[in-house]
Amino acid sequence: MLEEQDNEFILGIFLMEAWETVAAVEEGVRRLAAGEAPSPELVTPLVVVSHRLKGAAGLHGYPAVSAVALVMEEVLEALPATTDDERSRPIQALGDMVGVVKRMLDSIGADGRENTEIVSELHARHPELFAAPRPLSPRPGRRGRETGARTRVRSTACSRSSTASSPSTRTRCPISFPKRPSISMS
Description:
CATH class of the largest domain: Mainly Alpha
Distance between the termini: 34 Å
CATH architecture of the largest domain: Up-down Bundle
Helix content: 55-70%
Number of strands: 2
Shape: globular
CATH superfamily of the largest domain: HPT domain
Largest sheet: 2 strands, antiparallel
């Protein structure tokens, strides 16, 4: 009985944080759709919360939410490098992804399961975003996961694929992320 209550409590925390994340991304997408430039001040926090949603959803056993959050993160990372003419489609896709995540969170809140059929609709609307499996992308200062002799990457905004795994062959991300403060347990 206690374990079931613990699971419900943990699920409640996940959903609360996920809804806060979706609200932040939704507000950012609204600002972008209204014509605000995708400056680092606007985009960086959205990338961070999308990344956190991706990890939290995966940790709690919701891979479809995690996959959509991954694509949201990638689109947001690439957005500052786009021209004004190129931005409408990614911004529309972000809005659609926010809507899908909201519907999936409703499904999770109702019965604890994600409704993956909702993601199929998103795949049909934006096949360019979901066309191929998404390899991992190294972040600045981190080593990428090796697959054979190549380092595979997922976003051209902050890195590029290379046949060599040397960090010097990767481009640096134009967005700098603040370092997390270290917490001492002593």
